[in-house]
Design a protein that fits this description.
Layout (H helix, E strand, L loop, with lengths): L18 H9 L3 H18 L1 H4 L4 H13 L12 H22 L15 E2 L5 E2 L12 H24 L4 H11 L4 H8 L3 H22 L3
Antiparallel strand pairs: 1-2
Helix pairs in contact: 2-4, 2-5, 4-5, 6-9, 7-9
Amino acid sequence: MEARFQLSVPAAEVKAATQSEVIQAIESLTDQDSERLEQVATNRIFRIGRRAANGRTPEDLLQEAMTRTLDGQRHWYPENVGFVPYLIGAVRSIASEWAGHRYRNPDSPDYAALESQLIKEDEEGNPVSPFDGLTTRAPNAEDQMVEAETEAERQALLRAIEQHLAQDENASYVLMGWQDGMDGPAIQEAFGFSETTYRAIVRRIKRNSQKIMEERHGR
């Protein structure tokens, strides 16, 4: 599978794919393409969490990306990127959108976890809650604070790096691959990078990341 990157094409000449072209691209997906897309969607659902997904499955996420492309809410530019890398980006973006909505609306009843939905029955037909039998352990406030601060710092640094490299399309793809648990060979295959190109992108990301960390820590 090879992604096509033609970033030298002037923006004015780049045209979005028509609905028929999108349909053709969907129908042309190979089993390997489908497995990769399902893996990415599964990883994104896992990352944003069950509540942010609000009952939606990886299949729902992938279907949403395709639907938005078909109805014109999102646009695929074939001259800039292959269809599979485009869908990977769309899946990631939509998942982030769902997570953002959950973050901005923490008290919305849409995200309420109802115990009744989790209750099952034992062999005798008696209702059993997954919360039954759980012991209450007083949380270690200091550990929680340190963990929260560490995670917040990591997320802030990641966002800063992503924003700094937002105009570097290839670097954005590599960052996206790393977040989805992909290694170098997998990223090269998914986005059509040669090993030399991939290594150059990684060096570019490291240089920019080091610069951002130095600025954040006043070095």
